[in-house]
Amino acid sequence: MILVLFAFLLWLLGWWVNGRLASGPYADTRMVRFLAPLIFGLTIIGIWELVVRGLEVSLVILPAPSLIAVRFADSLSVLWADFVQTIIKGAFSGYIIGCGAAFLTAIAVDRWEFLRLGLLPVGNFVAALPIVGTAPILVMWFGFDWHSKAAVVVVMVFFPMLVNTVAGLREATAMQRDLMETYAASYWQSFLKLRLPAAMPFIFNGLKISTTLALIGAIVAEFFGSPTLGMGFRISTSVGQLSLDMVWAEIVVAALAGTAFYGLVAMVEKAVTFWHPSQRG
């Protein structure tokens, strides 16, 4: 119970430090914005370690962060192979194909009204289908390798990207479109110089949403069939072997990959949409 008491004291210390940082004179600086979540995360990990050790929680229920770190360090080669299979081959390839196809389809929907009236309601219906229902079908269609996982990712990211892009292409006001017509601009001139730049915040919103959907889709699809590697495969087999430290090591890899993926898209967005009010701050 002494360790549990230390965990409570650590929580109070983390609360006090973050409170001082948030209310101090440097609250709006980049350093404080970096330190606050770092201290918060380290506090949670420390409390987790102390509580699990103090209450002697079984490894099967919840492993301590130190045990997860040891398994992570001892399994780098396995984790890397799973990362390449699931993230690089499955999630990233499906993300590129799905988002690219959605962007091209959005241009066609914007160009021809009947596609908007006919395709978008169907898209809303397909987007509402649960992944646990579509993933087994796609695995049977495309096989047990990474191709089926990429197909699941394509289905998951296509319609969120499509809806956001279509909404963005309609963001330009009627006055702006009339001005382009006054200048005798063609459809593509108006598209490239007015409507596409105005749609960029919406497009990147769809891209950022799709980063998390891609990882979820690729990992969940591996539960329904995969070769003897992959993050979803490793999680399912490790749960069956009661090796929860390996499960959490895979979760750490997925979290780091998802954060890096999202951050990369956000960095590109900041460079492309620097003129937008949301980026100027």
Please specify the SSE layout and strand pairing.
Elements: H1 2-23, H2 30-55, H3 65-74, H4 76-111, H5 113-127, H6 131-142, H7 146-169, H8 174-182, H9 187-221, H10 231-240, H11 244-272, H12 277-280
Helix pairs in contact: 1-2, 3-11, 4-5, 4-7, 4-9, 5-7, 6-7, 7-9, 9-11, 10-11
What would you say this structure looks like, in words?
- The chain is mainly α.
- It folds into 2 domains: 56 residues; 206 residues, Orthogonal Bundle (MetI-like fold), CATH 1.10.3720.10.
- Helix content is 83%, strand content 0%.
- The chain has 12 helices and no strands.
- Helix 4 packs antiparallel against helix 9 and helix 6 crosses helix 7.
- The radius of gyration is 23 Å and the shape is flat.
- The protein starts with a helix and ends with a helix.
- The mean pLDDT is 83.
Summarize the structure.
The chain has 281 residues and is an all-alpha fold. It has twelve helices and no strands.
- Provide the CATH top-level class of the largest domain: Mainly Alpha
Q: Unreliable runs, pLDDT <50, ≥5 residues?
A: none
Number of separate domains: 2
Which homologous superfamily in CATH is the superfamily of the largest domain?
Answer: MetI-like
Oligomer: single chain
What sort of overall outline do the alpha carbons produce when their principal axes are compared? Answer: flat
Q: How far apart, in Å, are the first and last alpha carbons?
A: 47 Å
Mean pLDDT: 83
What pattern of helices and strands is seen along the backbone?
A: HHHHHHHHHHHH
Number of DSSP helical runs: 12
The share of residues in extended strands comes to: under 5%
**Overall SS class:** mainly alpha
Q: Care to count the β-strands?
A: 0
CATH architecture of the largest domain: Orthogonal Bundle
